[in-house]
Fold:
Amino acid sequence: MRKPLLYTLLALACLMTVVPLLYMVSLSLQTEAETLSANAVLVPDSPQWGNYAELFVRAPFGNFIVNSLVVAGAITLAHLLFDPLVGYVFAKFRFPLRNTLFVALLATLMVPFFVRMIPLYVLMATMGWLDTYQGLITPFLMDAFGIFLMRQFIQPIPDDLISAARIDGASELRIYRSVILPQTRPALAVLGLFTFVFQWNEFLWPLVATTTPEMRTIPVGLTLFNQEYFTLWHLTAAGSVILFVPTAILFVFTQRYFVRGIALTGIK
Amino acid sequence: MLRPRTLSGRYARTAYLFLIPAILFFAAFFYLPIGNVMTTSLRTGPQADQWAGLGNYTQALADPAVRHSFLVTAVFSVIVVLGSIVLGLALALALDQPLRGRVVFRVLLLVPYLTSVAIVGLLWRNILDPELGVLNRVLSASGLPEQTWLNTSPLLTIAAVTLWQSVGYTMVLFLAGLQGIPETYHEAAKIDGADAWRRFWRITLPLLAPTTLFVSVMAVISGLQAFGQAYIITNGGPGDATDLSVFHIFNVAFRARDFGYSSAQSVLLLVVIVAFTLVQLRAGRRGEVTY
Structure:
């Protein structure tokens, strides 16, 4: 195909993805009248930065932000702590029932979240964990995908390194921490980024597992805010921008990791 | 604690020590819930404590609302799968050329993939709203006919919004697949006089089959469990036109508070997803090509 045509097509596709997001930013800086005016406002006359402050007055938006940070942060830390450890065990240890346990682990990849949703809700209700951080966090502490990713990454590390450390008298935990873990850094970066972004954006479980506005995460708090104040689009847009900015900043600095991470998931 | 005498016994003990948290976690948060959803699906009543046998399943299979939600979900998934493959591959083919600014294009196309379904849903509802939406205000101000896509073709519209979010992801997968095809095949075919069209159908597409399979499996799995689009954009409507299965299950469970009936429906949907995945993987294995 001719190059000018290619450039045009790609530029159009990029406009399709970027313009709506830019409009979201514009909307967040409009007055309520501008959001409704018959002549659609694409660039507000005077940006209403006060919309962002008003959002915090109308809804416990500070809580939403803290909740999102705590929940996504804790889950990400748990993945970084456990996924490489479990991946290491399946990559480098021989022990009874190893294959059975590994198959049982991989089988959980076939279980979509909605299957666990109702029983988890009942479980959390009986434990009194609805509307708590532990209720929001514990169902996602590990997953088979992260463990599998780490196992694939650890497998090529030479066994000799581990044997040498054992002969030197290093404890098993020490071997893991000083020999294995430092070599997994690129994979850990991918794992951490993906886990954080997905949990930051997670919608269904926080919707099910919270009952008071104060415990909602941003995606849920924002959606329910919009249901309550459905005409205040400028405030909903401001909330969307707040939800979007952290992932956008992360992405700009780490897009190579993201692209490599996605490509990695596609390779069998 | 008993000290194992052999070396392999000691390694096994270490392995299990390291595995304890994972075994506890997957038992408590995967296998226990899976067991519970199955047993709950056999019960009825507001507390889901009365034995119903297979009653929930027979009821679900005969329930027009449940059947409709499965149909809606199937149509939605087909659109998302086909769209993911066609658009993702087209963008990947375009980006696989030696162009300036490839990284910028790739980044911009991938941005929606990083946004929450809450952002995607709220933003597109605002854009497409027939009365207050910005698209119609722009169209009418420029004297063009207005659209009412959320009323006239709601399912196609939310599928398109889903593609808007996910197509960057499939594009990156296809790009990785394209870069795995050795340049020599194309050069050899060029020398033999094959034009670009022929090379695409005879070389690129067959050799991309594993990627296409992976993309379609992922798209089916995510399409069949879409929820936020219906919850945020359409509330399942107009009428029940976008009553996606997980949205339907959510409403039966948490609005109608019927855990037995909703559990049976989620087991049915799980069976569909697992069956589809296995069929696709088997079909894909048969269709694999090597040159």
